[in-house]
Please model this.
Amino acid sequence: MARLDLRHPANAEGDWFVDTRCIDCGTCRDLAPSLFAEARGASVIDRQPTAGEMTDAWLAAQACPTQSIGTRSRQPRPGRLYPREIEDGSGVFDCGYCSEDSFGASAWFVRRGVGNVMVDSPRFTAALADPIEKMGGLAHVLLTHRDDVADAHRWAGRFGARVWIHADDANAARFATDVVSGVEAVDVQPGLAAIPTAGHTKGSMMFLLHRRYLFTGDSLAWDHRRGDLTAFRDACWWSWSEQARSLARLAANHRFEWVLPGHGARAHAGSDAMHDRLAALVARMQPQG
Model:
């Protein structure tokens, strides 16, 4: 629950606020960019939500890893908003309930007849585990990289799921059952591939579902301010040049319509538009001069 006694002074005046326990993960700004802004190394309410924006505010509140978003009036929460399907009939869900251990990274749940999948790890909570159990539990936990392991061992233990990670990040998840090596794509299930994309970390991977939904970890995201795809040079922990090469291979070999990252905003466009934006990003990442 958000703490009114720790209300950040930069919040817009009104009922909704962010408290100073915020770790500036940016999740709320990615989910509701019209309501939240960055101020003094934290997220704050930039504008109080209208009646039609209350769901967006509550989605940010339920995703917040430090539970720092709330209301002065202690409005009752509108029940469980997560897992939340990203488009009707997709079977792809935003998990919400981000973990402070992954610096507030988003995680994803996919409901599949051949076995349900979780990509990266949200906070382990009954509020999320119970609805996932009702949808059939988990067969696989897919880890995009070492930073977003969080509670993966608890999710795998609860549902008896296999855990996938790349060999170059495997020391962050020694409980993993399936370790991917090299740079070639590997099938996890029919229609679901692991794509090594070294750069952000040495063992970063993406996961591509039905050539439509691309789960990108921290290697690729949408930037609301730029209105375009982006990669995080200031948060590249291994090799920027290798990340550029990985994204170039992605552009050459794969098509997708959705970008579903850990950090950064998610986005949806036609596969040709996404390909062109990715190619342009790769060009921007090259050394200048």
